Amino acid sequence: MTPRQQTWDPLRHHGDAEAAAGLVDFAVNVHGCAPPDWLQRRLAARLPDLARYPSAAEERRARGVVAQRHGRDPEEVLLLAGAAEGFSLLAALEPARAAIIHPSFTEPEFALRQAGVPIERVVLTAPFDLRSARVPAEADLLVLGNPTNPTSVLHPRREIESMRRPGRIVVVDEAFADMVPEERESLAAYSAPDILVLRSLTKTWALAGLRCGYMLGPPELLGQLAQCRPHWPLGTLQLEAIVACCQPAAVRESAAIAQQLGADRRYLTAALRALSNVGVTVAEPAAAPFLLVHIEQGAGVRQRLRERGIAVRRGDTFPGLSDHYVRVAVRDRAASDTLVSTLREVL
Fold first, then answer.
1. pTM of the prediction?
2. pLDDT of residue 6
3. Which residues have CB under 8 Å from 276's CB, separation 6+?
4. What digits encode the pLDDT tens for the residues 135-165?
């Protein structure tokens, strides 16, 4: 039997498709090249336990640590194999019509479309202010990011809360919220019957290959989302990583990382602003560990950067953006200098 040929879907295109060995990676929004040493040692210590199935006690322990980290009850925590898994579960809520605020991470739309849920795209234009969103009144499921990938916009919490309606569930993708100093505008600690918050641990801790995350929300909705999951949805190392990264010492380390990323973002933003005379514009204000950059000659710039050893994320696969946009991850100052100097050359 010949395997069914799959066509390329822009909604499934992500930064990892741009990165490759030998390239300076500005395409993937993962902090660091590997988990910190203390986390690697902790995970390695659990390798002898892989012969047995993860226990219910280990799952309860992980939920308890996450709950304590956000001031929640354990019943308000659903552990996930990466935050992206949470989007694949949303169809279990049986929405009649979903609205997704774009430009944003595309996995929610893909997952809901695959499940046959009608989708309404609510496309924002620069500066991507949530107050301009026109969400259909009949939408009973609303998905948005905060801070938003790829725009790096951090929406005020009050603006998100203002989008609640009777009969509507609001899903907030906070995959990068722990990279925002003091986790400003986060709804993670906010208990409400109609708000679900997704968190990722793969970005800050360089765990993209392990798939770790969780969802916070009312137990009734979490139970509905979890009803069709397989037994043992997370493995031993995933549970261990969740516990390790949500304990107080790790939260303090994460806060320090967020501060450094903020300084590095400001440095990169200023350097890119200096290229405004050659058609480079940075979307501001920015709050995430990446920047959305508009380049007047953008159609060929990404390829010319790649030929010179630099990978950036194409922007045209995000609904609402054209090929004049690229997304660049925040790196250290030496890497940022390399990006900006090379960009100046190709322009």
1. 0.95
2. 63
3. none
4. 999 999 999 999 999 999 999 999 999 999 9
The fold adopted by the segment(s) 49-246 is Aspartate Aminotransferase; domain 2 (3.40.640)
Structure token digits, residue 122: 């609510």
- At 320 the three-state DSSP class reads coil
My answer on whether omega of the bond before 118 falls inside 30° of 0, hence cis, is no
**Identity (one letter) of the amino acid at 138?**
E
Taking only the tens place, the pLDDT of each residue in 205-215 is 999 999 999 99
Classify the phi-psi angles of 166: left when phi > 0, otherwise alpha if psi is within -120 to 50, otherwise beta.
beta
Q: Are 147 and 176 in contact (CB under 8 A)?
A: yes
For residues 276 and 249, the answer to whether their CB atoms sit within 8 Å is: no
Residue 198 bridge partners (DSSP): 173, 215
Q: Which two tokens stand for residue 341?
A: 């100097």
Residue 191: closest CA among 226, 224, 225, 161: 161
Looking at domain 10-35+251-346, its CATH superfamily turns out to be Aspartate Aminotransferase, domain 1 (3.90.1150.10)
Omega within 30 of 0 (cis) for the link into 181: no
Q: From residue 155, how far is each of 61, 133, 171, 193 by CA, in Å? A: 32, 12, 14, 21
